[in-house]
Amino acid sequence: MRSTCDPVTKWFGENINLRKIYAAIVNLLPTIILSSVFSDEKWQQAMLVSISTFIVQDRLETSPVMVIIHSAMISVCFFAFINLADHALLFSLICSSTAALTLRLAGWGNNLRVAGSFTFIPALYLAFEFNKNLPANFSYTCTLPLLLYIWVATLPTLVLSLFHQWRVFLRSRSLFHRRKNPELGAKLEYKSPLLACAIAVFLCSMIVESEHILQGQWLIWSAVSVITGEMKTSHRKYQSRAIGVAAGGLAGMLIGTVLPHNAFLVETGAIVIVLSLVSFKNYTLEYFIRCTSVAFVVTMLDEQTSLIFTRAFNVLIGGLIGVLLFKIVEKTCSLRSVC
Hints:
By secondary structure, this protein is an all-alpha fold. The protein is about 80% helix and about 0% strand. The longest helix has about 30 residues, at about 305-335. It is globular, with a radius of gyration of 20 Å. The protein starts with a helix and ends with a helix.
């Protein structure tokens, strides 16, 4: 029995982060309850804000003030994205600038890039999702109430941060106890990635806006996601995303077809999607589970299965654009010694 359990235990230890899963579930619980009580899918989508603020708080041990600032930045970006969605050029410029900033933060520390990424991701995804239910030619006043979802979804992380600060106070017995500086992570090369990211996101955003591509957020984010500090890691990440979206899409459709369709399984699938952001140490596995869960939820909701293929296409094309432009910029910079 021991010989059978040991490999399984080892695999779990190497690939699954149980501590973060438990903490993330507690963090998501209020938003999950709101989604169930009000039967409002916007609360389900707002779970992305809860998990994003949780990830940044966990990485940087942010104070309550910083959690509020992070929530405010998500709100500002969301408000800009959703209100400029019908203005292709302005939307593309804002999107490109925001995405490029996440790469600039990597120059000060990789954990800061994580903070930038998890500001851009919830703002972009919620802007696209919430935009579906807005009337044509809406004014900015229609989008102001939507900010409530972001602020409420941030509250669990704010409570978590207050709890951590209280623990620090109890240890020090003094409000003037000097907190240790947050770990910013390794400083990464950012000049070439920043330029590549700005061009790639601008191009992808213009394509999404001009061609009215469904699930366009996946195209835009995929271009950002694969651009890392080095070409080798960019290739590796693109391969992981390609494997995850292809295999995960098929697996999710299969599981969703076999299982009975009910609200509980849909809710569970939505929770797994956001939990996958913190649950796994292996990125290929993480992305596979996320894509499987997305395809599963789409199948369960009896939505068009073409959405699964559209999303896969956007992930592959967006990532390809990002990798190719990164390669071009790297080559150009090395030849001309500009960067």
